[in-house]
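User: We ran a pulldown and think these components assemble together. Before we commit to crystallization trials, I'd like a predicted model of the whole complex to look at. Sequences follow.
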Amino acid sequence: MAQNEEIRYLTPKQTDQKKKKYCRFKKAGIKYVDYKDPEFLKKFLNEQGKILPRRITGTSLKFQRKVAQAVKKARHLALLPYVTDMMK
Amino acid sequence: MQRFVRLHVRTTDPQTDVRQGIIINPLTLIKTIMVNHYETVFVLTPVLSEPQMKEAVDKFENLLTQNGGTILNREEWGLRKLAYPIQAKTSGFYCVLQFDVETAFIAKLETEFTRDERVLRFLTTRLDKYAFEYAEKRRNHTKKEEA
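Assistant: Here's a predicted model for the assembly, 235 residues in total across the polymer chains.
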């Protein structure tokens, strides 16, 4: 058994290099998150229209707060849905 | 910063602006008024015709100008699909107004919006430093496109 395991890992396992996440606002120098632009805000939503956590999008805390506010404003104005399915 | 205070003084010039560095004798000061940049987005019912829609927007614009406000920008997006139905309607006329007005007037403006049956939704936000920069950029951009 021990031998089998050794054989299995003879070819070095591809430990893929993790791509470093970055905050797109800081990188692009965006200072204001516009709530009137639903197409842009959709990048921060999942298929159900929920706001994605920043552990997935990589957004910094400062801008995650602003994104969340902008999404909520857009929802109020019916630019984005509160609940949906298959948005993308 | 864009937040500034306008003083009404008992001089020939009723609206002396502090930002211009004019020194005013504090004794002449009557009252202090806060003036800010604001932006209102509102949605009108799709049952209106094009001129009726224009008329509704003009109404709010006039209301602002008559109460000491100045319109910075007016944007009409036209008929747009709503993300979810409001009052059994699936589309609406979107309109954006950007303006300077005294803070106390906002409450009155919002009651006007709630009273008007043609308005499905509205949202007034104060434009902070970055928002104002963004709005200015957007304004210039649309101007260029028109030209």
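Chain A has one domain: 19-88. That may be worth checking against your pulldown data before setting up trials.

User: Thanks, that helps.
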